[in-house]
Design goal:
- The chain is of the alpha+beta class and about 110 residues long.
- It has one domain.
- It has four helices and seven strands, in the order βββαααββββα.
- The protein has helices spanning about 20-30, 35-45, 50-55, 100-105; strands at about 1-5, 10, 15, 60-65, 70-75, 80-85, 90-100.
- α1 packs antiparallel against α2.
- The N and C termini lie far apart (about 30 Å).
- The mean pLDDT is about 85.
Length: about 110
């Protein structure tokens, strides 16, 4: 738990790098825009400290290893892989694609 200089509790929010990749994807796949915006807003406002924190809220999230996590987007039509550095409250977008493109990855934990 972090405290500000005046003693108030400071709860950091996640910082997503980079939303541009999501925008680029939904410009090609317009039906992905709303679910990706919802995910972005939800994750951006979160203060996750462990994978367990995410799993309590998003049971469909999969742990891939190497700090990589996979989210089902748009009713499992799309897959979003992110790298999360919990101690820095950072989320790095590593892959966004169709379920078929995800299945074609050699090793999703290395994306």
């Amino acid at each position: 738990m972090t405290y500000s200089q005046n003693g108030n509790i400071f709860i950091p929010e996640m910082w997503i790098i980079s939303k541009r990749r999501l925008i680029d994807f939904w410009e090609i796949h317009p039906d992905a825009e709303t679910p990706l915006r919802v995910w972005h807003t939800f994750a951006d406002d979160a203060s996750w400290e462990t994978p367990h924190d995410i799993k309590q809220l998003i049971s469909s999230m999969d742990v891939l290893g190497n700090d990589r996590y996979c989210f089902n987007i748009g009713g499992n039509k799309y897959r979003l892989i992110v790298k999360i550095v919990f101690e820095k409250y950072r989320i790095y977008i590593r892959f966004i694609g169709t379920h078929e493109e995800y299945d074609a990855l050699d090793n999703a934990s290395k994306v």
